Structures
1.
Amino acid sequence: MIRFGLPSKGRLKKQVENFFSERGLELVNAGMIREYLAEFKGEKKVQIILLAASDIPLEIKKGNLDIGITGRDLIFEKILDWRKCILELKQLDFGEADLVIGVPQFWIDVNHLDDLDEVAFFFRKKYSRCLRIATKYQNITREFLIDNQVTNFEIIESQGATEGAIVNGIADVIVDISSTGETLKQNKLKTIEDGTLLKSFASIFVSKNYYKKNKGDVELKRLLDQLVLDI
Amino acid sequence: MLKSKKGILKPKLDSGNLELEIGRIATIFKKAGLKEISVPSLLNSSDLVDLYGEDLKLRAYTTSDPVRGEQILRPDFTVPILLKHLRGNSHRAKYFYSGNVWRRQNFKSIIPNEQYQMGFELFDSKKTKSISSDVEAYLLINKILSKYKVNSVTGDVQVLTSAINDLDISDYKKTSLKRHLWRPKRFMRLLDLYSKQKISGRNNHLFKSANLLLWKEKLLGIESFYGVRTKTDIKERIEILEEELSQNLIASSEKNFLLKLMRFHSSLRQAPKSMLSLTMVGDTFRKAIENFEHRVELLSEHIDTKTVKFQVIYGLTTLEYYDGFVFGFQFDHGKYPPIAQGGRYDSLCSTLSKKGKSICAIGSMLRMDFLRKT
């Protein structure tokens, strides 16, 4: 049995279903009342498991899933050195989103990371605290800002509605996913020139361990061939 | 980050040897008049992040605790000992410590995630005692390691900061340069920007007058402000940048001097004279070299300073929070990371100490996992 993890809801779920139907794979309910299990029509060797897109990376790493479709942003965030245990089988042409820094629009003097660093330093001097950055993507943010020599910042964990964190007084700056920039604009936020942390999209990921052990498996080969097929 | 190469094995420890070595070193510390101090293994996260910045979380182990809030496994002894010392009433103190610290390591690193460290911190309220404490600290480690085949490298952050203080530029520019001494890429970017010789796309906007005028105009038209940063804060920053436009740039002779200084290395014995010959001798720099020379003279009474290496920027990227004399000891075979590192951290003390309490400090740690019977 091949355990295949897919996002259980949202736009990503619909796009994944499209992707399958283009390749002649039809998702059907597993026949039980459980809505989080499914299978491909006429294919008994693949168990489809529906779960939160953000849980897919760790489940592949732990070995509970053999294959999964999820956003690259989530793989980068959830698993340090993910290339050691996970194979990126195919990059998909949907789920596009950039992970960006958002600052208040009226911060007209802040247009680059070096500005952000200087403002963080002023914060320290004037308000005796670090610049607070709210994000769901703590690991990517921390690494990116340190790599780019930004100092005096503190990351505030935010599980959702991050774009509201500044107005709510929780943070001074945010790092969040933005596909069109519309949400940022609505919340009177702007991006900065060198403030794109990651250009993300959906990909098919395979557990390296599983792949090594089952390379010769005919069923797996047939499935992977079908998935990488360009339509 | 230290990487394991072929032929280098992770050190295997014989606990018997380790314990004997701990006992031997503790005896040396006690004979030198140091008192043992203990600090907790679990520390409050927010205090430390405030101090080190988020970098800390890349290295330290954090724990989640819904009751006490996020706790961090002690990543070093220096900061908790300093905090404990500051809470007490004494000004002068000599402490030694012995115990585990925990740090996340790169998967290739040969440094254990749980390492056993011994070390000491020497506190004094008198700045005048600094040089003799520097010497005391270096000689103490030198004595402990004398039974091993080791060599040492020294550095001095003060030499660099004093040279920056002598530049004929505004305090704003000096502060920025000094603030980023520990981040070479950023430091070079600032040096380029402030000397205007080569300006990268990333920061050239900072000093364009047209931009500043445009910003000022735009700011007038904005009505909606939110968050902690105020309109005045923004206006103030624009004014500072504007003011900077009329201020001196770093002269090319000054820049060349700084670059030469940053590349400088020699034997410790030779260093004071050679550094003075790099020219552009301002008062602060001359004073720093005088102190430096005094330290070398004192050390030369005990050891052959011709065999000790000196490198101006030694430890600048790895020895966080040190701001004066720094040193490191390494095995001659060169396979392991430095087995001892230490240095002066006066400005960390003044950041953390309450008003009216001035404290100077130097300390050093020993990586016990690499010290074995030879």
Note: Residues 150-170+251-331 of chain B form one domain.
2.
Amino acid sequence: MKRVQFEHSTIPYLFVAPQIIIIVVFFLWPAAQAIYQSFLLEDAFGLSTQFVWFRNYKDTILSTSWLQAASFTMLFSALVTFLSLAIALLLAVKANEVIRGARTYKTTLMWAYAIAPPVAGLMGNLMFNPLIGDLYKFFNAIGWDFDHKLDAFDAGFVVVLISVWKQVSVNFIFFLSGLQGIPKSVNEAATLDCKSPFRRFWTITFPLLAPTTFFLMVINITYAFFETFGIIDTTTRGAPGGSTNTLVFKVFQDGFRGADLGGSSAQSVVLMLIVLALTVVQFRFIERKVHY
Amino acid sequence: MANVELTNVRKTYPNGAEAVCGVDMQIEDGELIVFVGPSGCGKSTLLRMVAGLEKITSGDIKIDEQLINDVTPADRDVAMVFQNYALYPHMTVRGNMSYGLKNRGIDKASINKKVEEAAAMLRISDFLDRQPNQLSGGQRQRVAMGRAIVREPKVFLFDEPLSNLDAKLRVQMRIEIKRLQRKMKVTSVYVTHDQTEAMTLADRLAVINDGRVEQMGAPMELYNNPATLFVASFIGSPQINLLPVRFDGQHLISGDIKFIWDAKLPTDTDLMLGIRPDDLFQKDDGPLSLRVDLVEQHGADNLTYGGLLGADETDGHETEFCFKSGQDLLPDIDSQLNLGFDPTRALVFEKSSGDRLV
Amino acid sequence: MNWRLLSTHAILLIGMVFMTLPVWVAFCTSTHAPETILRDGLQFWPGSNFAETYRQVLFVDGGVMKSVLGFDMLKNSLILGVGFAIGKVVISMLAAYAIVYFRFKLAVPLFWIIFMTLLLPLEVRIIPSYEVVSSLGLLDTHTGLIVPLIASATGTFFFRQFFRSVPDELLEAARLDGATPWRFFKDILVPLSKTMIAAILIIMFVVGWNQYLWPLIMTTKEENYTLVIGIKQIYQVLAEGGELPQYQKAFALTILATLPPVLVVLIFQSWFVKGLVESEK
């Protein structure tokens, strides 16, 4: 905090008021509602509601469809995080090395940041369109009996590919800025101490990038959990048979399409808890990050 | 024009730490007072309390007989020059200098006049339309002073204003500040940790240690008559030589060193004998003998450093002395140099309390 | 040129192709006639149908949807992007200023309330949020669309971080210069934050433009569709099949939805990167 602050009885409240009002109305209230509704059961016609304690939690979370979505979300997040980080790191390291064309490379590698996930999803969808999609035709031509409408693995492949494609640019931007933050003298000292560039990368550069990597891991997991909604909703929509349902997509499906408010709310609350846990992890890392 | 009066001023932080513990001080109209002390001694806090940037826990501060404890900084009519200058980076020099006047609702024409005058006095008229990041360190320093001058405040406050400048510029600006202050006759408080700056600038200086004023007075008074061991060792460069001694009724004794002392001193406590490097002189049968470790030639004088042979240790280390002589005395390294001193110029302190005895 | 440098360039070129080819193909395909696309599949070079397709999509009634022009959707997207960015910057700057520069009683609890919003994305409270907005009668309004999105405090945290890096002495100097809280904000802090504000505006414009789930459930009338929502609808129409699927229009709409945020990011690249990297610290 500042050494010196204004002391004023009304002005600070006036300044925070807009933000606080918005938060109370559009954040706290809905969040409280979600928790409240998760304990209610509505009959089929929406005529009466009943307070049922944790029944919604038990019913939804122990259901096979939720467990399926949960395990797909885990696998999906792990794959998206790992692949997009790995690709971005490789590209960032290379882009940091070159001098000729560096600007062009950087620009073309980061611009996809501006593309909305659902737009990426739609583009991918058309690429995999059985009628005109070249990727669809290509995979079938090389002997892969590709059909993402019917095959769970192929459908998963499509959403992972599109999600990774969309996320590489953000990771690239952060890795590149992390690399540029490493003092030149450290690199020069390393060049004197170690001949192999490959070894130098894993023993010097990569450890120095660790704070960035940890931070990006959290960002990417959050992305895979939430922002990929747009991609799923414009490609597989959970098909085939719910095999590409993420947890967020299922909340939406059950709440809006299935009108199961109690169950959907219970899922929301569980998701909130997962995010909370993720945040705790993030703070651990941020604390550690300070030491660099 | 104003005098400043501090009465039992205290600052205690919420965690219980005492930054300033009971300062009384009377600053006369037009005087330049320097607060000097090691870092963390509370001198900046004290200055900031005068400015109103720091709340006082208890006590009174008066400017011009007027109690200002609860007056906002802007209404105290003080101006401050900061260590990092604190220029508004997005405003031109002119904008920086006129901002305070604008906020006081002064009309444009007189603002311009004041700014031009101050700029001329500081020789920054050519830079009025530049931004701070286009200026050198010395020029920024002048702008910071200009911003204070145009306000025509009752009191000028300087918070280590020269410590970001290089050594040469520092000396130059020091002279300029002194000259300016003489000319404008504005009551000024100047904070520094540099004893040379303090000695050369101050009309009177206050040596501050651990949130207390150890001693306050004219520079030479503090140099010649320090009240405590702390003041004696803080003021003066090179630092005063200190020899741990005890008194046996007739002699001062330190290890193998023993010499007659006719003043009355307590015999039951550890004492410290302080002799300034310039008060030592070469004397073949002198009581002190120095093993020469190093000679620094400063041009007009030489400084000879070395261990004092036979003396008691100081804090577990060999007691070291520094001897200042003319340029022609150039002893060989590892040779032995016998030194004498004038007992009337030597200072004796009680070791535990640091109080001056003689 | 040694082999190492060659391989570096090769990897970067592959990366470039991977990141740009899909969009290029989408653009090229959008400039061909529907018959061509159906017969030959995706296109890798621009065709001759550019003007016709985009005119249809943007300005012809029923060209892309039953009752809304592409141009209207573009407008809605702009309103969402710009409104979101400005709203977010203004509200979060004010809040951050209060938190950093004032000592007041409720500072700590209010800070935690704001902090909490970072923990729970809109996605997990989407249904109750919808109910709140609907009970306030804000469905299908700009307010209902934009304001709930501003509830998350990412911007506040960014400005808080930035304000804390501003030297304390500036405030002290300003106070001695007689600046009131409002004046300090207006004369010193806002001008000092200019580049930061620009960076955040750019990022938030992109984020706002790209909103999907919230506009999807918030807008029930076609005339309120944004481009991002619109393309999804047209895709659904395509999927249901018809005599001659208008793939070129779907692609054209995709390009339109991509173009403005991409342009903003490309034009203000250095600000954007700075803002993005700094804000996440």
Note: Chain B is about 25% helix and 35% strand.
3.
Amino acid sequence: MNTGKWKRADFLLLCGMIAVGSLFGLFLLLAENRGTEVRVYVNGEVVNTFSLDEDLQYEICGAHGGVNLLRIEDGKAYIEAASCPDGLCMHMGKIDKNGQSIVCLPNKVTVEIAGGGEAYDVDLAAR
Amino acid sequence: MNRGKKVALYGVIVATALALGYLESLLPPFFVIPGMKLGLTNVVVLVVLYRMGGKSALAVNGLRILLVSFLFGSGMSFWYSLAGGLLSGISMILLKRTGKFHIVTVSVAGGVLHNVGQILVAMAVLRTAAVGWYLLVLWFAGLFAGALVGVLGAFLCARLSPKIFDK
């Protein structure tokens, strides 16, 4: 069965996808700046807001009884422990840039960095 | 193709896709960035697309997603898989239909759009648009995974006996 031949169109589409990704990355890089605020969302609603400069621990009660332990330390926020089966939110690492987020899908929890001057406008652009 | 062979062939294909998905889930999770997957099952979808056509590819992918969510799914996971599977499946069918692209390019586009589809659902579910960096990582992850899957798929398309897919 014919799986096609390499043509100009392949080159254009592949380069196009790499270019779009790179431009997007450049845009994020240029727009990034440190945030001042940590916002905790459960099910799309803000449930709590913390300062990024104060060290603390906070237990987020997510959907279906799930729990994520949020920790703010040295100006960075991360999930220290979580009840979700995959634990991906813990692997997402520490965040401190405006607009960065940690997402836990099973518990419907989002931790988002906000504040700190002009936020990049992905939020607005994507809406 | 007679009905008996059809049932058997689809059964074997869907089972292969399931087994590959399971195999992939055995990879240690700390090796990868969250949500980043090789998408080995897409090899199966790709081969079916090129050997049996678009409808069969969509059917196999749909069946696989349904079975995976019945067997291992947790709540929303079905919708993420479905969005990713449909978006990548339909775009691969359309790209192939143009006849202008190599199988690897088709697979790369499918890999990227699979991840984009999942993120779109995540944005809708969590009602957030703050997915910038995540989208960036998954965009490139989709590129690389799609390329690898495409090379594997091209190899299998060339090597699998045509008898398997005979009418």
Note: Chain A has one domain: 37-126.
